[in-house]
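Reopening: NADH-quinone oxidoreductase still failing for me.
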Amino acid sequence: MPKLTINGKEIEVAPGSTILQACEEAGVEIPRFCYHERLSVAGNCRMCLVEVKPGPPKPQASCALPAADGQEVRTDTPMVKKAREGVLEFLLINHPLDCPICDQGGECDLQDETMAYGRGAKRYDENKRAVTEKNMGPLVKTIMTRCIHCTRCIRFSEEVAGVTEIGAIYRGENMQITTYLEQAMESELQGNVIDLCPVGALTSKPYAFNARPWELIKTESIDVMDAVGSNIRIDARGRDVMRILPRNHDDVNEEWISDKTRFACDGLLKGRLDRPYVKRDGKLVEASWAEAFAAIKDGISGLDGSRIAGLVGDLNELEGTYAFRELLKNLGSSRIECRQNGAAYDIRQRASYLFNTGIAGIEEADFCLLVGANPRHEAAILNARILKATRHRGLKVANIGPALDQTYAVEQLGDDAAILSDILAGKHPVAKKLAAADRPMIILGEQALARPDGAAILKAGHDIAEKFGLMSLDWNGFNVLHSAAARVGALDLGLVCDGGVEGILADAASGALKAVFLLGADEINPSRLADCFTVYIGSHGDHGVQQADVILPAAAYTEKPGHYLNLEGRVQLANRAVFPPGQAREDWTIFRALSAEIGPAPLPFDSINDLHSALYEALPHLADVDVRPQAQWGDFGSDGAVARGPIPLKYIDFYQSNPIARASKTMAECSAVKRQKMEATGTHG
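Support: Ran it again with your exact input. Result attached.
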C-alpha cells in the first residue's frame, strides 16, 4: 500500500487510489468541479490542482494522478493558491452574474469555491459568451451560458443511466452540452444530472423559482414510488412539499433516485381527499367522520365475516396495513389480499418473495437470468446497479420474456416461460452458463408470477437455484422483483387469500361478498364492486373511489411516519415531513377510531407506541432496522408443468403507475412525451 506525505502528514492509502482520494483520507479538502467519486475521471476542470514532489515544478491535477510511495503533496503553497485562483478566474470569464435569479443559488459549488478559493476581483472586461438554451424535456431546465464544461452530465448519462442522450458539440470556447437533435431526454434517471451539475446550467424545471433552500424544512424519509426503498430528503415549506432529493445509501440507492421519486411530488397537492364522503341517492356527498362511520356501520350491519373482504394497496406503511388487518379480524374476516398484481407469491417461505441477493449484492454476481422482468421500469435504481455490474464487474445478463431495452447488453433467450423447464432439464445452452458461473442469480418478475402457472414458475426458479449453485453459505442468487413499496411488508403480515384479488372481485360481482374495504387499492378494475358495499381509505380520488359508498381521507407517505420494507426485506423508517390536508388522518388512527364505532371491540392500541409494540410482537424482525435480512431457505412454489407460451409483459407507463404519479402534472407531461416518442418510432416501451 502506497505511503505518501500530505501537508507534512504521512498517510497510507489503498492501491490504485488517486492523490485526491488520499487527501480526502487525510482530511484535506480538495476543491473540484468535474470529479465525482461514482463517475469516470475526466480531469478537465483543473480545480483540484496540487503540488507534488517528485515531479515537474508545476501544479498537477490530483483527481487523475495515482498516489505512489514517497510522494510529498502540498495543497497550501502559493503555487497552488495562485493556480486555483487562475482556474476560477477563467471559469468566471463567461459565467453570467445572475446568482440572484439562479435556482442553484445557495447550493452552488461554483459560489462556494469562488468564495473559498477565488481572488475576489476580475480582470476581464470583454463581452461574455452566450449559449442558446437546449430542450431537454419537461424535467431539466437548461441555462447553458452558465455551463463550465465539467461533463458530469455526459458521464452520468452514459455510465450510470446507460443512455447516450447527452453529448458535447463544437470545440474550445464554442463547446456546448446538448441532447442529440435537442430532443427531450428519456432516461428514468435524468433528474440526477441536476444534483450533479456544480453550477446552475441544469436545474429542476418543475421547481424553478419556487423556493430558496434556506426557506425549506428538510426531513429524511423513504420513497414509495417503487419497492427499492430509496433514501430521500423531503424539502417542504409550510404544508407543501416543494421538492424531493436523494440521500446517500450505498447499499440501496447510492446517491441516485428515479425521476418518479424526484418529480411526482406535485401530485401530493392534486386530487387529494381531504374530507369524508358518503354516497346518498347514488351521489357522493361531503360528510363528517361520525356520519361516515355510521354509514359503514349500517353498510356491514348483520354481515358475517366471510362476506367481508379487504384489498391492500401499493403505497401503505406497515402501521396502517397492520391496523387494517386487525380491524377486519375484529369483523370476523380473514379474506385480505395485498397482491393487486395477482402474482403467486408463497408466504410459507420468506425467501420466496425477497430480493435475496440484495441490491448491492448484484455487483458480486457474474451471471443474471431475468424471467419476465422489466427492471428499467419496475425498479430503475436497481436497473442502474445491474448496468454498473455489467460495466465494471463483467456481469452477463440473459432474458426470458419480451425483448426490451434495459440500457445494457442482454442475451435474448426467447419469450417462452417453458425455457425454465428446458434449463432444468439441461436442454438449453444457458444451463451451462449458469453452472459455470461463480455467483449466478435469477430475477423473477411479478408479471411472470401473475400467469396462471405462476406458482409453477416460482417452483422452477427455486429448483434452478438449487440445481445450478445459486445457493451457498454466503450467497443467495434467488430474487423476486417487486414494484410496490407495501408488498413485502404485507406479505410478511400474511395478507394473501385463496383466489387472490380476482377471486375477491369475482365474488363481489356475484354477490357472494357484500362488503369490501379498499386500503389505497387503486390498481384494480373497480367496476365489479358496483353491487357491493365499498369503503375506500386513501389519499387520492383515484381508481379505487369510482364505486365507493364511503370514502375516508388518509395521509400520503410524506404526511405520516412509518415502517417500510423494501424488496430486500430491509426495514426502513419514514418520517412525517408535512401534515395531511383538511380532515385527512393517518391510516392507523382511522382504523382505531372506526373499530370503536362498529365493534365488536376497539383495537387494542391507543397510541403509536402501543401500535409499535403490537407490530413488533407480530413481526419481531422489524427491530433490525436498515439491515438486509438473510431469509431461511426452504421449499416453495407448487409442482406442475410450466406452460409453453409468452410471458405477457403488459406495458406499464413508468410515469403513471400509482395514484400520486397519476395526479402529478409533471408526470403527465413526461408520459405524453414518452407516448409521442413511441408513436413516432413504433416502439412499445
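The two ends are 48 Å apart (CA to CA). If you still see a failure, please send the error message rather than a screenshot.
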